[in-house]
Amino acid sequence: MHVINHSKGEAAQESRNVLVESARIARGDVTALSQLDAQDHDAVIFPGGFGAAKNLSSFAVDGESCNVHDDVQRVIQDFNTAKKPIGLCCIAPVLAAMVIPGVEVTVGQEEEQGGKWPYAGTAKAIKALGGKHCAKEVHEVHVDRSRRVVSTPAFMGHGAPLHTVFDGIGSMVSAVIKLTGK
Questions:
Q1: For residue 168, is it left (φ>0), alpha (ψ between -120 and 50) or beta?
Q2: How many angstroms separate the Cα of 175 from the Cα of each of 6, 88, 150?
Q3: Which CA distances in Å does 28 have to 20, 25, 46, 62, 147?
Q4: What's the burial of 148, exposed, middle or buried (CB within 10 Å: 0-12/13-18/19+)?
Q5: Cα–Cα distance, 93 to 52 (Å, whole number)
């Protein structure tokens, strides 16, 4: 959608390719999501960040009336149908709420709590999209065992110590791996 200069908190006057940026961050081979086949993998994990709401869906602009990118929808549906674990952190659980009816996820708390949870409205959007929101802290995860979906709030909480965000994301990854049975 646009590039943010996080040191200034404003849009930068440049454009980037999501696939190229993904390869830069991962420091390796990255393929287009259109090439992902659930049968070739044990699980899928969607990292969050506001980019997930801007580039994987139209949630950042359209809120509850958003659409999910076709490949994202297909991948989530394919892993769900194959009963393979899906991990989501930060704002990414909203993607599952758009695709998997009745899914249980967390993006943190449902009230702002004096600015501690500035994106608490996302929990309400998850409910409006047909999902169930489960309140959790940044270091916690929610596991929807029947749908094999694991989520954690990550950076949805404001000012949380980084090690607690790390703990939550690590717990989410561990829970996803455990659900694979490997």
A1: alpha
A2: 31, 11, 7
A3: 10, 8, 18, 33, 31
A4: buried
A5: 10
Q: Is 90 a catalytic residue?
A: yes
Number of other CB atoms surrounding residue 47 within 10 Å: 16
Q: Read off the tokens for 25.
A: 């961050």
pTM: 0.91
Residue showing tokens 């940044």 = 138
Paired with 10 in beta bridges are 5
Contact 46, 92 (CB under 8 A): yes
Distances (CA, A) of 176 to 29, 43, 54, 76, 96: 23, 7, 25, 14, 15
Q: Which residues contact 105 (CB under 8 A, 6 or more apart)?
A: 88, 93, 94, 96, 97, 126, 131, 132, 133, 134, 142, 144, 149, 151
Q: What is the percent of the chain where pLDDT is above 90?
A: 72
As a whole number of angstroms, the distance between CA 182 and CA 59 comes to 34
Task: Identify the active-site residue in 66, 89, 90, 134.
Answer: 90
Q: Confidence band (pLDDT; 50, 70, 90) for 76?
A: very high
